[in-house]
Design brief:
The chain is α/β, with parallel strands linked by helices and 566 residues long. It is built from 15 helices and 26 strands. The strands form five sheets. It has an eight-stranded mixed beta sheet. A six-stranded mixed beta sheet has the order 8-9-10-11-12-19. The N and C termini lie far apart (77 Å). It binds zinc ion (ZN) (2 copies). One zinc ion (ZN) binds next to loops.
Length: 566
């Protein structure tokens, strides 16, 4: 179709560049769009009170009619986590492998989304979406049923590796389809996008199987209860824990909502092989001897509400850590979670447990390709153009350098940012403008209603507390009728600081008198005068900067409100 070639192919990352999280990439040609992945990320420290972060999809809403579908590479949250929010704005068909859609199904139920078109596509199979033909290619990763993508477009083939590693001895026997990637390379790849997560690490990743061997060794010599924390979606890891339990005659209890869910879904879909009678309810482990028990739990990231943290805190309804328990943390902290993880490890030691984690013993392997695997992938694909993806800026930069060493011309590689419009023709690749992009913060049921100003306030409140100054003035004259009263939260304990509070009131009174003298009647100006005088007074006194909130109630002289703090 020669006429189709009049368009440029556009690649528009809406998430996942300059960050590890909320992956989402738009592939657009003329009036056709497919979306690769639809992820979320966890909030950063300064995003107080925020549950999750999703990409800004203004561009998708604007171009709703062009979207042919969402293609999912695998079931990790940074690839499927924002789907419920996106579907509420643009309801388009979704394509993914069986396990990916199984995990997604649960999430859609939680959000009460029923009218969704979910289409299973197995590795090796293709689907036509508008002018694109999308083919799934078997991958290895820290979740089963992960795929890379070959997208045939009118101007050439685009390959997206998805999150991948090369595991020659994976747990279910499905080795990454290197043959398919090589075949694409032979036919000619116009553009490749590849996982940059582990580009800093030399060599080749270890096989998932090495962790299983470690489990066998640990279980063999253990007489106490064993508690293993891992990612719920790491079904192969869970399988290996179960295998070791079965080998050493232990029963397995599953703890934590997402772990229970993942085990249920993957067992139903045939991704987890559990002999009958192996899994017992947590209530029933009391009846077993210590050396007959394994508990598989969530909480490998030290998440405060997770089952493991609650156990360590004596805050779990059914389970607690007891002296002698062996706890294995079979995961690495996601960057940013190091502190919470080490806090949990400390608590576990304090409870008298023994703890094994990656720094002590190899009880985890990564799911992301290291340098040798990245080189092999690019060597097989031999792409004309290259966009490193799934990484912070430094990862993308290093991946571009690695590609340059393999002969991919640096001017044919684009280090992109979220929102960039990257235009590709059969002869060129370049950035050309950008679209709206960014973080949408989800706090409970509110999506995007918490912005920078709200966050700044939360930060200020959390660090310095709040002082509320309440007073009432007479309507018309502005004369102070009652107050100022001072109420504080998270600042100082009022009853023990009566002097400071009294002095503060005096400061406010002086500021108000000044306003009267200068005939300042404007509420905002009065409020500003109160804030300024009080904040410099408090800073001078105790070197703190609480948030100050003046509340002025204007009343008729005969209806005085009660301003005292009850
Ligand atoms: Zn992943
Ligand atoms: Zn990922």
């Amino acid at each position: 179709m020669a006429t189709e070639k009049k368009h440029k192919l556009k690649i528009i990352p809406l998430g996942g560049l300059g960050e590890i999280g909320k992956n989402m990439t738009v592939v657009e040609y003329g009036s056709n769009i497919v979306i690769i992945d639809c992820g979320m990320s966890f909030p950063e420290d300064e995003m107080l009170g925020i549950d999750i972060v999703i990409p800004d999809i203004t561009y998708l809403i604007k171009n709703k009619d062009k979207i042919k579908g969402i293609i999912l590479t695998h079931g990790h949250e940074d690839h499927i986590g924002s789907i419920p929010y996106v579907l509420k704005k643009v309801n388009v068909p979704i394509y993914g492998t069986k396990l990916t859609l199984g995990l997604l199904g649960n999430k859609l139920l939680e959000h009460k989304l029923e009218d969704v078109s979910l289409n299973i596509l197995n590795a090796g199979k293709s689907v036509n979406l508008g002018c694109f033909k999308v083919t799934f290619i078997r991958n290895n990763h820290s979740i089963p049923d992960a795929v890379g993508l070959a997208i045939d477009t009118p101007i050439g083939t685009v390959v997206h590796t998805g999150d991948f590693k090369i595991d020659f001895t994976p747990i279910n026997g499905d080795v990454i389809d290197l043959d398919a990637f090589a075949e694409l390379g032979r036919k000619g790849v116009l553009l490749a996008m590849s996982d940059s997560t582990n580009v800093e690490r030399p060599g080749h990743t270890d096989s998932e199987r090495t962790v299983g061997a470690k489990f066998m060794e640990i279980f063999k010599n253990c007489e106490s209860r064993i508690i293993v924390a891992s990612f719920a979606s790491n079904v192969h890891r869970v399988q290996q824990i179960i295998n070791a339990a079965v080998a050493y005659n232990r029963k397995v209890a599953i703890s934590g909502k997402s772990m229970i869910n993942a085990v249920k879904v993957s067992q139903e879909l045939g991704y987890l092989d559990v002999p009958d009678g192996t899994i017992v309810h947590v209530n029933d482990i009391r009846k077993l001897k210590d050396n007959e028990v394994v508990i598989i739990t969530t909480g490998s990231q030290g998440e405060p509400m997770s089952a493991l943290t609650r156990m360590a805190n004596n805050d779990h309804k059914k389970l607690e850590i007891k002296r002698g328990d062996l706890v294995i943390i079979s995961a690495n902290p996601i960057p940013g979670n190091e502190k919470t993880v080490s806090r949990v490890i400390n608590m576990l030691y304090e409870k008298g447990a023994d703890v094994l984690y990656d720094a002590l013993m190899q009880v985890h392997v990564t799911g992301h390709a290291k340098q040798d695997e990245l080189k092999l992938m690019l060597t097989l694909l031999k792409p004309k153009f290259f966009i490193p993806v799934h990484g912070e800026y430094r990862h993308l930069m290093l991946h571009a350098k690695l590609a340059a060493n393999l002969g991919i011309d640096e001017k044919n590689t684009i280090i992109g940012k979220n929102g960039d419009v990257i235009e590709v023709t059969s002869k060129s690749i370049m950035k050309n403008g950008n679209v709206t992009s960014g973080n949408i913060l989800v706090d409970g049921l509110g999506v995007g209603d918490v912005g920078n100003i709200v966050l700044r306030d939360r930060k200020l409140l959390s660090e310095n507390g709040l002082i509320i100054v309440v007073l009432s003035t007479e309507r018309g004259t502005g004369k102070v009728l009652a107050g100022p009263e001072i109420v504080s939260r998270g600042f100082i304990y009022v009853r023990e600081n009566i002097d400071l509070i009294e002095e503060s009131k005096a400061v406010v009174r002086r500021a108000l008198n000044k306003c009267q003298e200068t005939n300042t009647r404007e509420w905002n100006n009065i409020k500003m005068a109160i804030k300024d005088s009080l904040s410099s007074f408090i800073y001078e006194k105790i070197k703190r900067n609480p948030m100050i909130l003046p509340i002025i109630v204007e009343v008729n002289n005969n209806e005085l409100p009660d301003l005292t703090d009850k």
